[in-house]
Amino acid sequence: MKTGVLASGSGTNLQALIDAWKGGSLAPAELVVVGANVAGCLAVERAQKADIATFVLSHKAFPTREDFDRALVAELRRRGVELVVLAGFMRVLTGAFLDAFPERVLNIHPALLPAFPGIHAQKQALDDGVKLAGCTVHFVDKGTDTGPIIAQAAVPVLPGDDEDSLGKRILGEEHRLLPAVVRAVASGQVNVEGRRVRILPPAGLADARLRSL
Ligand code: GRF
């Protein structure tokens, strides 16, 4: 399944996808293009190093969000993209984008949704005193981090944590979870029933394998 990744920053989740792809564990997903809205961001460099096509479209160059979204769709379509992964893409997408890829846009968020949507999720978790934090991969809908949850991973919040130490612990789980979910979606193992998402066992494999998600 031809997969496009959108990013705005350091691209460590993109790197996890690249490593999985090169290592053969992302199939049937293949990374065909990486798009960014910030020129010179590290994510674009990572893609170029991996010989993946890239494009940069600054949202500032478009009069409306919809115009920006339509331009993104055109770039992705040009490469035949069927599945879109938001990996640290710091723009909220409108229907102009989402309607072009129904149930085919994934996002990774550094919190156990529905708690702590939006920016500074790790700070929100620390400020609220939760003892478990984590990350969520979900389908994207028109809200901010509100779409159906596909998979989550939890990490402890330790007494001495600050945003940085907690963020790093969560990122470690993000890098494991995102490629696993992309592979499962591309394999047709992910079923959406309203708000509930079921991950079906891969053909011929026992349930034990599923729990590794
Ligand atoms: C990650 O924490 C991700 O959950 C959030 O943005 C951050 C991106 O980090 N959506 P990176 O660019 O993948 O390093």
Structural class, judged by helices and strands?
alpha/beta
What shape does the CA trace take? Answer: globular
Q: How many distinct helices?
A: 7
Biggest sheet statistics: 7 strands, mixed
Number of strands: 9
* CATH superfamily (homologous) name of the largest domain: Formyl transferase, N-terminal domain
* Main sheet: strand order: 3-2-1-4-5-6-7
Total separate domains = 2
The percent range for strand residues is: 15-25%
Low-confidence stretches: none
- Report the bound ligands by name, code or SMILES: 5-O-phosphono-beta-D-ribofuranosylamine
CATH topology label of the largest domain: Rossmann fold
Helix share of residues?
Answer: 25-40%
- The value of Rg in angstroms is 17 Å
CATH class of the largest domain: Alpha Beta
How confident overall, as mean pLDDT?
95
In the CATH hierarchy, what is the architecture of the largest domain at level 2? Answer: 3-Layer(aba) Sandwich
So what's the oligomer here? single chain
Order of helices and strands: EHEHEHEHEHEEHEEH
Head-to-tail CA distance between termini: 19 Å
